C-alpha cells in the first residue's frame, strides 16, 4: 500500500498539474484484507478487549444454510468459536482500515499541496467488504451485507457537501459516472451498458432501481445471485 501511495504521489507531481484536459488517476489498495497483518502501532489502536465483535459468529447464533456450511468447509474457516481469536482478527482488520485511511490521507494531502483539491473530484469505494467472522465466515464469497455492502463517497467541485443518497447503486455505475465526471460522452458501443451516471443522484434526482450481484468464484459450489430492492434482498 505504501508503494502504491508513493506511485500515486509521483504521478500527481508529474501529470496532475498543467494538463489541458481532464485526467483520471485510479489508485487501488489491496488492504484491508486477510491475513490481517498490520504494524503494531495500528494494531494497538483497537485494544482486543474493546473491539466490536462480528455479528452471529458463534454456532447456534448464525444461519446454518447448506451453502454457508459449504463455504465454511471449503474455505477451511473452522467453527470460529474462540472469542479471543475473533478479537485478534477484529483488531487486525480495524488496524488495516486505519492503515488504508493513512494512505488515502497522503494522496489527499498531495492534492492539497499541489493546489489541485479545488479542481479535482475524488471518488472512494471498495470492491467488497469483509465479514471478519460474522456468521462464522471470513472474507467475502457470499451475499450478506457485510460482504456486498460497500462505501461510496464522492467529493469535489459540483458535489453538495454532506448529502446522503439513498438510491441503490452498483459498481456498474462507476464507469458512466467517471465518464460524465470528466465531461465526456459514452461511446456508441457503450450505450447498452447496465450502469447509469450517479451525478443526478448526487444533486437530489435519485432513481428507484434494484441492485443486482452475482458470484461464481473461489469457494462457490454453484453460482449465487442477489436482487436488492430497497430494504429487501433475495439471494438464490
Helix and strand topology:
Elements: H1 2-16, H2 40-43, H3 66-74, H4 83-113, E1 122-125, H5 145-148, E2 152-155, H6 174-181, H7 199-202, E3 211-215, E4 224-229, E5 232-235
Antiparallel strand pairs: 1-2, 3-4, 4-5
Helix pairs in contact: 1-4
Low-confidence stretches: none
Number of strands: 5
SS strand fraction: 5-15%
User: Helix amount, in percent?
Assistant: 25-40%
Average of the residue pLDDT scores: 92
Explained architecture:
The protein has about 240 residues and is an alpha+beta fold. It is about 30% helix and about 10% strand. It has seven helices and five strands, in the order ααααβαβααβββ. The chain has helices at about 1-15, 40-45, 65-75, 85-115, 145-150, 175-180, 200; strands at about 120-125, 150-155, 210-215, 225-230, 230-235. The strands form two sheets. The protein has a three-stranded antiparallel sheet, with no helix packed on it. It has a two-stranded antiparallel ribbon with strand order 1-2. Strand 4 (about 225-230) and strand 5 (about 230-235) form a beta hairpin. Helix 1 packs parallel to helix 4 (about 85-115). It is globular. The model has no long low-confidence stretch (mean pLDDT about 90).
Write a brief structural summary.
This protein is α+β, with helices and mostly antiparallel strands and 236 residues long.
Keywords:
236 residues, alpha+beta, 3-stranded antiparallel β-sheet, two-stranded antiparallel sheet, 7 helices, globular
Amino acid at each position: 500500500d505504501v508503494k502504491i501511495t508513493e506511485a500515486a504521489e509521483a504521478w500527481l507531481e508529474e501529470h496532475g498539474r498543467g494538463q489541458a484536459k481532464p485526467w483520471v488517476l485510479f489508485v487501488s489498495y489491496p488492504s484491508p484484507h486477510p491475513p490481517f497483518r498490520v504494524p503494531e502501532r495500528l494494531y494497538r489502536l483497537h485494544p482486543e478487549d474493546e473491539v466490536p465483535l462480528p455479528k452471529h459468529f458463534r454456532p447456534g447464533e448464525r444461519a446454518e444454510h447448506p451453502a454457508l456450511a459449504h463455504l465454511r468447509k471449503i474455505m477451511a474457516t473452522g467453527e470460529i468459536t474462540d472469542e479471543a481469536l475473533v478479537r485478534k482478527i477484529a483488531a487486525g482488520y480495524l488496524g488495516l482500515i486505519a492503515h488504508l485511511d493513512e494512505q488515502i490521507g497522503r494522496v489527499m494531502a498531495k492534492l492539497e499541496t499541489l493546489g489541485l483539491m479545488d479542481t479535482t473530484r475524488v471518488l472512494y469505494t471498495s470492491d467488497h467488504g469483509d465479514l471478519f467472522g460474522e456468521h462464522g465466515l471470513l472474507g467475502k464469497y457470499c451475499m450478506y451485507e457485510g460482504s456486498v455492502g460497500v462505501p461510496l463517497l464522492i467529493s469535489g467541485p459540483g458535489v453538495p457537501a454532506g448529502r446522503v443518497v439513498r438510491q441503490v447503486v452498483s459498481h456498474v455505475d462507476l464507469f458512466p459516472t467517471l465518464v460524465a465526471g470528466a465531461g465526456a460522452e459514452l461511446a456508441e458501443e457503450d450505450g447498452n451498458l447496465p450502469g447509469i451516471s450517479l451525478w443526478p443522484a448526487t444533486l437530489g434526482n435519485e432513481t428507484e432501481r434494484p441492485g443486482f450481484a452475482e458470484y461464481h468464484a473461489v469457494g462457490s459450489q454453484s453460482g449465487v445471485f442477489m436482487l436488492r430492492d430497497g430494504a429487501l434482498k433475495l439471494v438464490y
